[in-house]
Amino acid sequence: MFYDIQPLKNKENYKNMLKCVGRLSNLFSESDSPYLSYRAHENIFCKYLEADNLARSDCSADAKKQNTGIGLKTWVGRDDQKVAEFGKLKKFYADLKGLNLVKKIAEYRNERIRVTKNIYGIDVMIYHVVKRIPNAMQILECAFDFIDVDNISMIPDKGNDNNTYFTDGKHTYHFSVSKNTLYMIFSELELMEEFEVDIAPDPYELLTGIENFYNAKEYGIEFVTDSKEQIIFNKSRVSIKRKMKEQLCLPLYSIKGKEKIKYVPEKSGINQWNAGGRVRDVNELYIPYQSKERKISENFFPSKDTSFTLHLPNGTDISAKMCQEVDKKNPLMGKAIMSNPNKVLGKWLLRDVFELPEKVLVTYEMLEKFGIDSVIFTKNSSLSIQSSINPLFSRHIAY
Hints:
Shape: globular
Radius of gyration: 24 Å
Strand content: 25-35%
Distance between the termini: 39 Å
Largest sheet: 7 strands, mixed
Structural class: alpha+beta
Number of helices: 8
Helix content: 10-25%
């Protein structure tokens, strides 16, 4: 399992921070089980176990370390927990029931896992769970598997018109029609560690003892614990003000008509390989840099035909540039982002990520099923830009 092979110091720091956060539980809850926000868990896990945080990417993995993808979960009570939502795809399965319904949901689930692994260069997936029980936390793990569609069987004595239970021989799942949500019963969890959490009776008193608490973010502050497990701070006054990196989200689709129908053009963008005029490589494509995005981000990319390094989510660096002249009045601006050579980006997206056969047109329906509709670019420097796949139906914003 993942947790077993992490450095001992990292695991101790991880547990100590979970204890620190758990001590403040009475700020949020009156339960004797520690409180832990899932966002706090994601951030603590990635910081102290030194993993990449993918949680805001809305993919199947919440974190990645080397070639391992991790699904992070925390809960109190039942082990029947949400693993995926499919509300945006309801139009494709609304008329299905029973075995046909759960097989379709399983296919969607597998597609998302497959695409996530391909995007980030992940070979193995696991679930890492912090389960909160009275006055303690448990760290548990289990396999994060594809659903074995061919071995799905219904569980007729459970469920109702809204909840359909099924198993694939490895795990038991249920799908809620009203919530468009897939749940998994985590019955195969392996206990890694269990530790007590001393919940502070009065967390407000604990917090008011922290010097400069309200200005803490302005200083280099480090959480540590004393022998009595009281939270104290390193009082160094080193400024840690950070400048937000610029980001730009570019859609892989176009919009037409008053109805604003989303579609992928058949002879341009990510289907440029299908355009006429000359012989084209089957992997040729570009990311459209449309007028709406150009107006709010004129200086985001280097000027047209100036190469920059593009860091792909799987860790690969490729050469890219802005191409295709907008008009003669603006010779430094282009309307497409291409790799150099052009086929490199297409090879990664069409073959490695989407796993499409050559000469298969990408449609918006495919993007819906992949759970992808755009690419986020993060500017590291004037000639270094990082890309990530953006979740479906995202807002297209520039920072």
